[in-house]
Amino acid sequence: MRFSPDEDNTRAFRDALGRFATGVTVITAPSPTGGIGMTANSFSSVSLDPALVLWAPSKTSLRYPHFETATHFAIHVMGEDQKDIAMRFAKQGDAFEGLSVHLSDNGVPLIDSCLARFECTTSALHDAGDHAIMVGQVDHVMLKTGSPLVFANGQFGGFLAET
After folding, report:
1. Which pTM was predicted?
2. What is the pLDDT of residues 78-94, one digit of tens each?
3. Residues forming beta bridges with residue 79, ordered by sequence position
């Protein structure tokens, strides 16, 4: 099937994008009412020197204004056993209850149980259609061993390494 993406074939375009397997992250930032979080699979490294990463929040999300104005944020890479956390933050932004969380010096909620965490200072925010591209200068990294949570074809799964 070959097509040009437009409003008549949005589902087919989403299905094509879903063929690319990604990791799953939860992005957190401070907000006037406390911490805010959002599940995202639009995470990527940008540069090693300087250390830069990006993610792409949807501008239609009710949580977007908090991230748009955030000077600091954290990207948490979810482990294969953390689908429940990803789903919680996909549905609501204040889903911290019951999680081991502490605040960074900049007031960013940091989830303790993730596989990796990138604590960032916002470096740039670029317009990108119905999303924005948020670039972060990585200030601190936390890393644990484990297997990542993977998302592809609209489903969560694990990663099976070749032996």
Report:
1. 0.92
2. 999 999 999 999 999 99
3. 148
